[in-house]
Write a structure and sequence with these properties.
Helices cover 45% and strands 18% of the residues. The protein has 3 helices and 10 strands; from the N terminus they run αββαββββββββα. The strands form 4 sheets. Strands 1-2-4-3 form a 4-stranded antiparallel sheet, with helices on one face.
Amino acid sequence: MTVLHVFAYVMLQLAIPKRIDSLGYNFPVYSTDICPMTAKEWSNASIQLNCNETHGYHCVPDKNFSSLIQFCYPRGRSIPFQKGNCLELAYTGILNHVKCGHFIYGCPEKDYFSNEIYRYPACLRLVAKCFAADLNCLRKRYTMIDGREKNSTFNREQSLEEENNATGFIVAVFSLSILFLILCGLVAVLYQKIRKLQRSIDSALKEGYFSF
């Protein structure tokens, strides 16, 4: 196999959409970094996935807003939606509207069909599980992430304080134990000296060195 063949094979593998089975949809969905942005790109993507009139090609955010997904929708090629809404693939596989009137730009201003969503790029751009144009969602996400980081920092500081306290307790117990052993040793030595002195006195009394 030549280098050219290897290169062609690698490019072909990269071009094959990656199927996602972990989202619980009733039909195959495939991850994609970007959705088609023109009618021609939409048509080419439809051909690549082998979609048709009854199972029409679509590309929208998944129900967790974690990524963009493309799929052949079993309910048809062109579903009408009202203005003021973007789309998501909800539940087990239902194209659902997502209100976007609060977006800072790009919310559809007139009714449209689902296979025309490419005309509204703001509905196809995600950041941190939010639409890029949805500042309210982004603020909430930032607050949540920032809160987790602060909580994590607090937990680390708390763990460090508990560790320091435990270390201090161990040192204190060890020090008291050493002092107790030293005290026991001194008492034992003193006791031995007292016993020796007592024996000396008893011995002297018996030999008559002391008289009363």
